[in-house]
Design brief:
homodimer, alpha/beta, 434 Repressor (Amino-terminal Domain), Rossmann fold, six-stranded parallel β-sheet, six-stranded mixed β-sheet, 12 strands, 16% strand, DNA-binding
Chain lengths: 332, 332
DNA sequence: CTGAAAGCGCTTACAG
DNA sequence: CTGAAAGCGCTTACAG
């Protein structure tokens, strides 16, 4: 592999001048031309590791996602890689199941990434606190933890849940059920809290027997909905705290020949692409996931440049998208 | 950030001894203990960039995927990151749309990854040939290019297509249609060729009017199937060259109230998770994508260790999984 | 504008 | 078993 020294020899200049010609350095036009010619002749590309050692920046960002089988995460990941590519950053990917979380934190420490974006923080882990104490650049997207001293990007999950409560009650529903994700996820907690509190305010409190909490998965949505639909007084309206659960619930209804939306309204959360497919046609709370990803990537890059600037918290607005899984009533 | 020098000072040894203690070096038990203690006291972690500069290995692998909106790729990606995590490798991710392909190749050259796995080669690009000429470690998974001098992992797409032809004809179908992905993809070409050739052998040649070629997407499957179903003599059996297209076709049938499988059989390819959901219940050709990913990751690691060992080509077997989108007849 | 030199933080022969 | 030294391939003051 050619080095800057090889190029220098061929161009008849010092190695330092080669380096200058290829960075922002001040070099005469003639010399630069000779160097570029020589560089392309030997197929020279600067070694990024060596450069990183001097500059202290590797131009690489870590991303931690959970569960790529939930299409929400590939959508986030795609937006993230797109934004970071444009910013000239490489992306190192970890899965949060397994040792991913701590591996990502360790990678900052070891200098193989400049910072990390977490999309799925669950609890406030000790390693994360330690990393933040030494000012490791970390940004949380999607799931957040208020007590953590880092930039955080989320959407108004609580308001979204409340909006669904309004929507159900305004349309005359009182037999209402809820299927939610794991309570370690802030998104699951907030959506449920917003939904439940608003229902209580509207004098339609949620029956504890009609609350299911489990995984953000199709499987869980399917089994929980199956159980709900088999009960003596099945619900007429069901809120699922993400789309994947809702798709499972729709499949449960389909399997039991329960008519949606005639006998059951179903609402999800996220607005992943397939929720709009005819097979599901799911009413759901739309999160601006692309914008959230872009903002998160931007926040991390700024944080890397300036580790001690004030912490930033961004909360995006969400809104209900009405489709065929609920009667097309205006959401007033 | 603490360096090995800091640890050396604290432990009262030379910097070289710290390095030995933390790698495979030969150090007395007492010294090592003192060093480890000192290291943890100052929070020392070896700088991976500096280490890479000496060892010539960054322990990072590049992965190029296309189109994370096709669930097939997240499934591959998940298997890949899982295998590579276990092998102690970091994963740098690129999207093949945009400059991803060449960026990944450049990253090998620049020393920021040790090798690259492509899941979506389309044509034999010049940069790729150049990279192979200088023995850059590259492995192709899923889509392949025979003429390329690198390790390749695929499944028997042609046989899979032929099996679907057998299945249709054995069950009495003669009005048969095909909706396929872009012909730049070897998978799309091979599945179609296997299907078409076998149909010809069975004296049921595919009518050119019943062949649609476009994108590996739900949208394309939906629109192509809509057109097919609106034709004067709609097909009774439809083969789609991936599941995403097939799901679009099923949605088209659903929208037009065409009964599946009574009036239309639909078969896909890949066996992504959601094809098994009640909403689709799609008969499809199962590819062992997890095994393919693991084999590809393994092949790349071996290639990195030994750039000049003989080239390897792996072709996995696939098989039809019969579900509700075709009548449950034995596949003979 | 250009060169000589130092140094980023490691690993690894080479001595002892 | 341990230390002193060289060197991986760059960038960046410092001189001139």
């Amino acid at each position: 592999m050619a080095t800057s020294r090889d190029v220098a020899k061929l161009a008849g200049v010092s190695q330092a001048t080669v380096s200058r010609a290829l960075t922002n350095g001040t070099v005469s036009a003639a010399t630069r031309a000779r160097i570029l010619e020589a560089a392309s002749q030997v197929g020279y590309v600067p070694n990024l590791g060596a450069r990183a050692m001097k500059t202290g920046r590797v131009n690489t960002v870590g991303v931690v996602v959970a569960d790529l089988s939930n299409p929400f995460y590939p959508e986030i990941l795609e937006a993230l890689t797109h934004t970071l590519d444009l910013a000239g950053q490489k992306v190192t990917l970890w899965n949060s199941d397994g040792p991913g979380n701590n591996a990502a934190l360790g990678a900052i420490h070891a200098g193989s990434v400049d910072g990390v974006i977490f999309t799925t923080v669950t609890e406030s882990s000790e390693p994360l606190r330690a990393a933040l104490n030494r000012h490791s650049p970390v940004v949380l997207i999607n799931r957040i933890v208020d007590s953590l001293a880092c930039d955080q990007v989320s959407s108004d999950n609580s308001d979204g849940g409340a909006a669904v409560a309004d929507y159900f009650v305004n349309n005359g529903h009182s037999r209402i059920a809820f299927i939610g994700g794991p309570s370690v996820a802030s998104t699951a907690r907030d959506r449920r809290a917003g939904f439940e509190h608003r229902l209580a305010e509207l004098d339609t409190p949620l029956d504890p027997d009609k609350i299911f909490t489990g995984a953000f998965s199709h499987d869980f949505g399917f089994s929980a909905a199956t159980e709900l639909l088999a009960s003596a007084e099945p619900p007429t309206a069901l809120f699922c705290s993400n789309d994947l659960i809702a798709l499972g619930a729709l499949d449960a209804a389909r399997t039991r020949a329960v008519l949606v939306p005639k006998d059951l309204w179903v609402v999800g959360y996220d607005d992943i692409t397939m929720s709009g497919w005819p097979a599901f046609d799911l009413t759901t709370v739309h999160q601006p996931s692309r914008e959230m990803a872009e903002a998160g990537a931007q926040a991390l890059l700024e944080r890397i440049d300036n580790p001690t600037s004030p912490l930033k918290t961004l909360r995006f607005r969400s809104h209900i998208v009405v489709r065929g899984s609920t009667a097309h009533a205006p959401t007033g």
